[in-house]
Records
---
Amino acid sequence: MRIARFEAGGRVSYGLVEGDSVTPVEGDLFGSRRPAGDPVPLSSVRLLAPVVPRLMLATALNYPSHLGQNVASPRPELFVKGNNCLSNPGDPIVMPAGCERVDYEGELVVVIGRRCSRVSVEDALSYVLGYTCGNDVSARDWQRGDQQWFRGKSSDTFGPLGPWIVDGLDPTNLELRTRLNGKEVQHCNTGEMINSVAEQISFVSRVVALEPGDVIFTGTSGQPQALKPGDVVEVEVEGVGVLSNPVVADSKPMPWKDLRPDLRPPRPGR
Amino acid sequence: MRIARFEAGGRVSYGLVEGDSVTPVEGDLFGSRRPAGDPVPLSSVRLLAPVVPRLMLATALNYPSHLGQNVASPRPELFVKGNNCLSNPGDPIVMPAGCERVDYEGELVVVIGRRCSRVSVEDALSYVLGYTCGNDVSARDWQRGDQQWFRGKSSDTFGPLGPWIVDGLDPTNLELRTRLNGKEVQHCNTGEMINSVAEQISFVSRVVALEPGDVIFTGTSGQPQALKPGDVVEVEVEGVGVLSNPVVADSKPMPWKDLRPDLRPPRPGR
């Protein structure tokens, strides 16, 4: 089953995708749903992020190929992506002014289907609604220079999600690919994860009662490259589909000038 | 004006507080509001967090007395608090199992009233709805031991907010006090902030279009102490009121056992 959220004629609906058409549904996305109209061609609607999460989490350093100088962690290393950065398929990734390097990070994203508190690793996957593609866009210089990753990971447009949610997949064995302007730049299998999807859900559920619609970006592989305006990034998860987003420059730059230069830390070597 | 959110008879409403009573309002909290009923005694309702933010941010290291070994930053150092941790006046702060030290952090919290993108420091305060009290509850060992502060700052119940929002205050000159079991343990003036409320809003607005209801916890002072079950923490902001929360132990402990001890980093000295 492929669950999409879309806008058509000014109205936002959930729908079930079959072939090249989508049938609107009403009811509870996480409970009983029923068709609420005739199928319409996918080409006639605008796909939106398939869910509006209450909580958007992401796991850092979760593929051996992405570790670099870091040591693998015996527990998932999570951070919060602000809900402001949720973005739709096709919507532009805006490179903020004052940031020198913005990278793509293609990821498998898990969508929670049922309230989920203190579940074991063994039971965790039974709380999943399905899976989608995500791009954990990352401003590297801010990620390195700031105390925490707020600007680095949660600037507006840094959380594209989609194109839809697919259920019934095995998250331990999915091919995950990213293409930059058509050229493959990331390729792994989700079985390479250091902490599995089930381990991530179980770990989070110890301190957070997860709600239906909450999502976890489950980590990226390899060494992602920098984006530039004009690029197009595609994230493809086997069995789900392709999430595609163009990259644009900031059209209204307002870089931060350090307001209190008297407080600027001394630079090394001076 | 004091704006509260409350539950009475199973119904959640916004209301305006005067003296010891609250008058329900209907309409847009951030636009035109009108009374929608008779005043009811505050003692007959249950106060809730006065707003349900789309985005909950917090500023680290923003009072000289809280810096410790850290250097003051020439820009606000922000992090995201997950929406899951939003908590109500009077609701218990739960000390998670497996965490050895949980601290209070009494803070002034600013509530955004109008959409706010790329605003200057000079204009920033015109986008404010008002102010409330917040407790940026912090699990110190997780904050230190994890890559990012997700568990340290966003475990469930770690974001009490309230008791209501007050407008018309000067955020550069408010007394801010925290009491632990009735004894004052934090006391500062918000004029001591390293980066002011206006600077924080302007800085965030460069990368996030803030929405009505978004909040920023603006930092804590001094060296907070550890909480223990049975404690009561009160945060008081001059001109706002008192946010009070009891502390309880985790009633259903499910500590994380490192699932993959083979991946545990070697300890120093071994």
---
Amino acid sequence: MNIVSYQPTPEELSYTFGGRAAVGKVRPGTIMELYTEDCFGGRVRSVADLPSRVCEFPYLNPVTGPFHVEGAEPGDTLALHFVSITPARDWAVSTTFPHFGALTGTHTTAMLQPPLEERVWRYDLDLERGVAVYHARNSDFSVELPLDPMHGTVGVAPAANESRMTITPDAHGGNMDTPELRAGVTVYLGVNVEGAMFSIGDGHARQGHGEVCGTAVEAAMRTVVAVELIKRVPTPWPRLEDDLYLMSTGSARPLEDAYRISQHDLVTWSAALTGLDELDAYQLVSQAGEAPVGNVCDTNYTMVAKVPKAYLGGPSVYESAHTRLRDLAERYASGR
Amino acid sequence: MNIVSYQPTPEELSYTFGGRAAVGKVRPGTIMELYTEDCFGGRVRSVADLPSRVCEFPYLNPVTGPFHVEGAEPGDTLALHFVSITPARDWAVSTTFPHFGALTGTHTTAMLQPPLEERVWRYDLDLERGVAVYHARNSDFSVELPLDPMHGTVGVAPAANESRMTITPDAHGGNMDTPELRAGVTVYLGVNVEGAMFSIGDGHARQGHGEVCGTAVEAAMRTVVAVELIKRVPTPWPRLEDDLYLMSTGSARPLEDAYRISQHDLVTWSAALTGLDELDAYQLVSQAGEAPVGNVCDTNYTMVAKVPKAYLGGPSVYESAHTRLRDLAERYASGR
Amino acid sequence: MNIVSYQPTPEELSYTFGGRAAVGKVRPGTIMELYTEDCFGGRVRSVADLPSRVCEFPYLNPVTGPFHVEGAEPGDTLALHFVSITPARDWAVSTTFPHFGALTGTHTTAMLQPPLEERVWRYDLDLERGVAVYHARNSDFSVELPLDPMHGTVGVAPAANESRMTITPDAHGGNMDTPELRAGVTVYLGVNVEGAMFSIGDGHARQGHGEVCGTAVEAAMRTVVAVELIKRVPTPWPRLEDDLYLMSTGSARPLEDAYRISQHDLVTWSAALTGLDELDAYQLVSQAGEAPVGNVCDTNYTMVAKVPKAYLGGPSVYESAHTRLRDLAERYASGR
Amino acid sequence: MNIVSYQPTPEELSYTFGGRAAVGKVRPGTIMELYTEDCFGGRVRSVADLPSRVCEFPYLNPVTGPFHVEGAEPGDTLALHFVSITPARDWAVSTTFPHFGALTGTHTTAMLQPPLEERVWRYDLDLERGVAVYHARNSDFSVELPLDPMHGTVGVAPAANESRMTITPDAHGGNMDTPELRAGVTVYLGVNVEGAMFSIGDGHARQGHGEVCGTAVEAAMRTVVAVELIKRVPTPWPRLEDDLYLMSTGSARPLEDAYRISQHDLVTWSAALTGLDELDAYQLVSQAGEAPVGNVCDTNYTMVAKVPKAYLGGPSVYESAHTRLRDLAERYASGR
């Protein structure tokens, strides 16, 4: 078993997808043990650390990578199976940020109102008990919320020689901020450049639907990823698979366009997998599908469309990559 | 126990919220056994019954009502507890409809492309086994989906002397098309006119998230509703409560505004219930909240924001109306 | 010549389209001399009169009407030619209003930020010199802007038994708030109910594009309208015609849908008038068309699509109603 | 006078803003005589040349540049004065393109309907008479439209190490597609990287508002630009100035956000220029401003907000760069 461990130095962190040289090369079939910093680069450590003071644009939302996958070429699909996602510290933070979030004027939803107060919340993480503890800032209210670790950001270099801030989700992946991207899930990303050049980051100890205030329970992570490559199979938008579901994503504005992209991809994908014509697949997804919100705060909004594989007759997708990667993950786990 | 049964004649069906005389009067505390027709008025019975031929605009999406609730005045809140929702026939239908649905040009998302094919699917409903059976039209593919009966449409007369087509969801309720509106749920609606004038309709044997093709598994229903009135407590947008969750709704376009309305209401409501200031409540809902999509196909789109009551310290809302109505429902059920 | 004069008492003002009995009957061919109050019902008279204090929801944006047009039936088109629009007082007002306008959170673009300051500006109107004088509130800056009187609101009773607040623009007309609706223009409105039931109101001494702060230079008006009826010719969305241009309107959210509706109507209308196929008309409108913004602040946003008649070969539309009404207007003017 | 002439070879054309080495260096004060190819790279020459066949993604919308401006640093503003824009050939083309344009489903407004027919129109350009001649494809209808040459695309390298397809407009400029960008106009662009790295392209012989079908009357251009640099004056979004107007742009989705950005920038800029507080400036722009639509078809939509300088007291902006550049242009013109 090929296992690679990597923890970036601060200088090695990346802030774009595309436009940067690889920090390493990996072969398909590799298990990668990665460290990712939180979206603030670890600089917000107490409620006194206002992000607008301790962070500097555009050095936000750092990702670990990019990694060059050997043999990956445009038209292929990269499969990343998230074996485990484990908070690296016993605390995490969340904040408001001036003119960022769904319930405030922003850079693009431009308004004359002054920004909301910038405020930091520090969560205690208890991995054994599986909880993140919320503490109100202006009262003694406190509550335990279940941990549900995930990565907000995963992606490859974009097409068309673009280079995009890590905060933007689009067809190349990026900052989709969907809680569906948890351990046990395989992410499929269409390869746009030689080597695919993937990165991951923005770990969340947990996140509500839509990340309405603009940030989740932001945590540095120790994450294990299994890497696979499916040759000559393209993927138009990031897709996810777990043991029960197939999922399509869409990232755009307005939010209905993110919904449309994800549903359109799930309908046409389901048609291809089942032999249904597009209208029959449209009907089936309409009644059987789910649509968990990713984010409604980033530069593009993200929606996920998902359907139980059982309702499609349990098709095998991407040459059974998910099953193979899950098996690899189990061998890795048992070998530790 | 005060029990009222009502099945409308075709002439008694309503097609607006507001602008119509009551079909009956009910006292708070009443159990109502209601029959509701499906959104096609029962006219689409086979795959040959194209809705554009057998239905006539604006006689779509009929509702049962309006009912005048004794003592209801503007500024009060009407509570409707859905005791049971049972398909009235052993079949249901779903269709595409020209220029309606999320993945087609529409009346407002106006496009020059010709409409999608109009097609009808007929589902077999098996109440004992709890399944709706999908049959593809252009292949022999078939699959059983779990029944999850709900009402797409519930509402009161709007404010400001408005009268709105039943197909439109807004602050008065209407065609929200959320699967969250199932049996066991209490819906809270702000009263705008004397008597509240509520109606319900548009039963779905089940529905995917967003009702992407424009219709669900449309079914006539036998539905039992328990009615309560909370005096001098206003409600800005329809809210829902079940044993575990508080929910706010928002209906608007674009979809992010439906999201904003629902999240804003849940944040400010949570603040009022917990004593948290708005920013602390914003943070808590951001990490603990869910955001199930209602519809992305109607004249307004609908989003739901929900949070477990346990995370708010288990507050009692609306004078514990949900608990009282659930108790009433149990007495009703045991008396049958 | 049939001339009718009408000035409503405060009790006769209307606040909806639909749902109200006619205040008068008119025959096609009539000249109507009408008085319209401003959108505040004349209650905001000085900078101390904050609208949230002196006005009461839903008694905003009053209109004069509805008028029953003899012989009008669903499927016909009502033509209203604006002969003249003259401010009735030597002052006008504009204001911000809490949570209303394009650069603030609103009822639907719900935000946690506090509202902008509510402030009133009083303009001096000089009809002889044709100017409205702006005075800054917090400095001695002052500037003369040209008068360009228009009506923000004109419409008929909606279809489908709906009744809509006058503040909402939709297919029935309503609060479109386009500066294109000035004297010399004929407005075409599809008739939905017997008698058409048209009303007008919301005079503006002038307005910027989009009415960005939420209100224009709001003025009571003395307005002369010539009424015509085109039998058995339907109109899907309000259209306008002046001596040089044909115009289509669209009112919806998001703003691109208002744009799509208006452009779609102009393209299909141009195709019908010229014999071009839809794609050739799409191309011609794409290069020759203009798209003045109406409002970006109301419950629906409004866009106008316009094209010079000359580029379409100078077609006659609606049985030359505009030409006939302009002639009638000239006879009226010369008779005074 | 420093005059530079440059015509790119096909290999020198650029398809992104950012991520490319300069094709040349220029000093502030230089007059540049540039050749720009049309958005199809000159490959669509007859109605038989369907762009989806003769063009290859992402080699669309080529720009001439980037040029390194000596001394330009982040925080400065680049001023480009368009001295003249002259079609380089006696023909131009326009097309529909599958899943592109405002009245069709697209990549992001994803729909299941098949695309509109792909069709090419070839315009005759007559520079002497100042007309572009439209010829219908499916009839013998023909009409002369006035030439109004402009550039759809102008911009600098983006911030945050991004590289963006030339088809995307954003804060760095790009494919704004506004007819306001004609000869006689000065464009102000905030500098994000050393040397600014500006490019221009996408000439239009004329364009309707919104470029509704997705393309304008696309023409290769001979364009003369005068270059100036304003040190230590930042510019948040592209701004334009001509002899009469100040203009701000906004590019985003949905379209109301493009409107909000442009109006917000014009309001805050006007406040800074006049000494009005923001609310007084908001009021003045609301009544005096115009809002010409740029594009409603690109990956971001573009709106322009403009106000007559006279209404602001005729302020001097950007150290009177427009006046100085216009003078330079006149000296250049008289020297020829």
